[in-house]
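Give me the fold.
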Amino acid sequence: MATSFAFLWFSFFTLLSSTVSIAKITPGFPSSIIRPEKLSHTTKNQLYKQKYFTQILDHFNFNPQSYQTFQQRYLINDTFWGGAHKNAPIFVYMGNEGDVEWFTQNTGFMFETAPHFKALLIFIEHRFYGKSIPFGGNKDVAYSNSSTHGYLSSTQALADYATLIIDLKKNLSATDSPVVVFGGSYGGMLAAWFRLKYPHITIGALASSSPILHFENITSPYIFNSIITKNFRSESENCYKVIKGSWQQIEDKANQPGGLETLRKSFRICKNYISASSLESWLYTAYTYTAMTDYPTPSNFLSPLPAYPVKQMCKAIDNPTTGNDTFAKLYGVANIYYNYSGSATCFNLDDDSDPHGLGGWSWQACTEMIMPTGGNNKESMFPASQWSYDDRVTYCKLNFDVEPRRNWITTEFGGHDIYRVLKRFGSNIIFFNGLRDPWSGGGVLKNISNSIVAIVAKEGAHHVDLRFSTKEDPEWLKNVRKQEVNIIAKWISQYYHDLAHFSS
């Protein structure tokens, strides 16, 4: 069985790097080995029911095409809901850049807290992803050109969520039920922005691992890879040095007669395709996603992984049985990320499949989500490089004939001087960040006010707080979730107090 590798855009926001050397190791999304978290205690049919909402194409214009509609999917679980007659709360997940079922099945926190709050659970799929495709559900049409693709944006998505929530509450006769929104990663950004843009619809937001500050002139383009480097270096100095020196070794070997064949055999690459750049990108993807999902328990979110996978990768590099064979060491590393289940016989570097429908992110990253992450300083375990906006423009014009709106996100949602600005405007947002997550560098890491709070976990990884709990969870993770539950409980209690006061 060959394990595949899809050379898509780095779905969790990473895009082009600036120099030739680092562009060769721009990560792709390993989509073919992504499987939803295996749930031993339930099945997905017990988790939710699938429904559709007739959504308008364009919320911000009044020309004839704006009034076209499409079917937007959402998932619902009313098992624990206290009902509209009790004004029981509604918890809504803000869908990410992919199939909503995948994210739902990896967001156990909402399912596990619903009984406590007697909450209705809703997971809304983001337009242009999964089964929520405009233009008759035909992705080929929807993605065909900028005229159709142009309806894919964060602002349109937020308006979708607002429209759907209002209609759903009306149909359920639950207009007085408080809504709390949740999201992780890009979904966490949407949750925070939704609370700021639509405070009349939601009473609060849990924004997990949401890098709302990862934009130009706010966050350094070097911080993302610096955090990855710090993670590996903290486990072993030798591990760091081996990885840092390996890129030149791969280049040197590839340039030798028969060198690519040697690399292919060393890394068990399938015979259909190999190049130095694709191999480097494959390795960079493994390091990056492992750092993001460096969870304290075994996981299966991006790929089947053991607990503390960064530590396990460094153990593979430090394994004395591989001697001074760098490629043997890196093969051991790759096996942890791409073949922990042990089923792969070779690795396919030339597979562009996209089973989770993540490809739409490339459009968003070419229009509004300009998040610089490709810089590497001399201490980085990746080749030194600078991030270049011009490289992004070149790619986007070539592939979409569109030029990015470089500062649109910070114009629309803010970000500059956020601690000063949101202290006077905004309330009821939880920003969770784990410092082992590369995206934490663009997150909110300290309290902004009494009600816009930052929960920071030194050992935390990418939205680890939203995952299903396990018996092996460390105390710090249990405490994070308790904090979040207590804060949400205060929001809901205050809402009921205000509802009674203003109704009397």
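The longest strand covers residues 69-77.
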